[in-house]
């Protein structure tokens, strides 16, 4: 099925996390305004703000702000940045080896917009994790339960293959087995079917795009800069600066919660907002009138 992308399914998917965040926000407001009276009948009967009032985490596009990513034939487009002039960047996180509960808390409590691209062998801790960043403390600690907690914190869960192969070395059928198998597994374990695909190592070919289409994926999502241990940004551009619309790539690595805090502070100090990737993609991929 190839309908409902960036529309109904996304709103439904965000529901659980937004509700939790709405409850947290509501509690904080009550405590701030009425110390000691939070348990009074009037306070407890006050309506909670709905998900709609709270809005999605992260900046959403203003009218006319986002340029259109043109369709590339009938195959899913390959996207590495969002066409906008606004100082907004997007956070994405790959694989799923290190499953630090502190990171989920951070994302939930601070309502940080992030999109996760998970890979089966990392989530299930099959094999050896990426050694970058040192010794992991939480490798495979929660498995799919960890991914479900991310989903509940409002994080879209997207497709990053089963085994992390270099797809350029595989034929069409083998690529399709990786992509469709991952989407099926995520749907079963997390309850929502992915709409985005991130190719391992950024390696793909025409067969990857055909396979993505066959598996119901809307776009291949690359990146403009990677985030190293310590929250250091490794740019792929010579002037070493963030640019509007950049997509940053992080990994589920040791010290993730600490590195993430450093990174988010750095981005904000440079005057950038964190954007809601779904909302921006929806605007960028809109159909021509
Ligand atoms: Zn990866």
From TrEMBL:
<feature type="compositionally biased region" description="Low complexity">
    <location>
        <begin position="37"/>
        <end position="52"/>
    </location>
</feature>
<feature type="domain" description="NodB homology">
    <location>
        <begin position="87"/>
        <end position="275"/>
    </location>
</feature>
<feature type="region of interest" description="Disordered">
    <location>
        <begin position="29"/>
        <end position="80"/>
    </location>
</feature>
<dbReference type="InterPro" id="IPR002509">
    <property type="entry name" value="NODB_dom"/>
</dbReference>
<dbReference type="InterPro" id="IPR011330">
    <property type="entry name" value="Glyco_hydro/deAcase_b/a-brl"/>
</dbReference>
<protein>
    <recommendedName>
        <fullName>NodB homology domain-containing protein</fullName>
    </recommendedName>
</protein>
<dbReference type="Pfam" id="PF01522">
    <property type="entry name" value="Polysacc_deac_1"/>
</dbReference>
<dbReference type="InterPro" id="IPR050248">
    <property type="entry name" value="Polysacc_deacetylase_ArnD"/>
</dbReference>
């Amino acid at each position: 099925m190839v309908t409902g992308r960036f529309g109904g399914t996304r709103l439904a998917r965000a529901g659980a996390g937004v509700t939790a965040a709405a409850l947290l926000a509501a509690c904080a407001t009550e405590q701030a305004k009425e110390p000691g009276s939070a348990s009074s009948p009037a306070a407890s009967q006050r309506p909670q703000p709905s998900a709609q009032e709270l809005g999605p985490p992260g900046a959403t596009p203003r009218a006319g702000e986002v340029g259109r990513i043109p369709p590339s034939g009938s195959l899913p487009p390959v996207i590495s940045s969002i066409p906008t002039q606004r100082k907004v960047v997007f956070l994405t996180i790959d694989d799923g080896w290190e499953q630090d509960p502190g990171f989920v808390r951070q994302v939930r409590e601070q309502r940080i917009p992030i999109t996760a691209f998970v890979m089966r062998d990392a989530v299930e801790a099959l094999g050896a994790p990426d050694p970058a960043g040192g010794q992991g403390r939480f490798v495979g600690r929660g498995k799919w339960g960890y991914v479900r907690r991310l989903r509940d914190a409002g994080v879209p869960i997207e497709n990053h293959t089963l085994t992390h192969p270099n797809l350029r070395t595989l034929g069409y059928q083998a690529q399709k087995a990786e992509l469709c198998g991952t989407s099926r597994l995520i749907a079963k374990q997390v309850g929502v079917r992915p709409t985005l695909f991130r190719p391992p190592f950024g390696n793909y070919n025409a067969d990857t795009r055909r396979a993505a289409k066959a598996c119901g994926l809307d776009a291949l999502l690359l990146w403009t800069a990677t985030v190293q241990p310590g929250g250091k940004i490794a740019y792929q551009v010579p002037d070493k600066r963030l640019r509007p619309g950049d997509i940053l790539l992080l990994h589920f690595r040791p010290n993730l919660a600490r590195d993430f805090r450093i990174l988010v502070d750095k981005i904000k100090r440079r005057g950038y907002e964190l954007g809601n990737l779904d909302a921006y993609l929806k605007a960028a991929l809109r159909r021509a009138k």
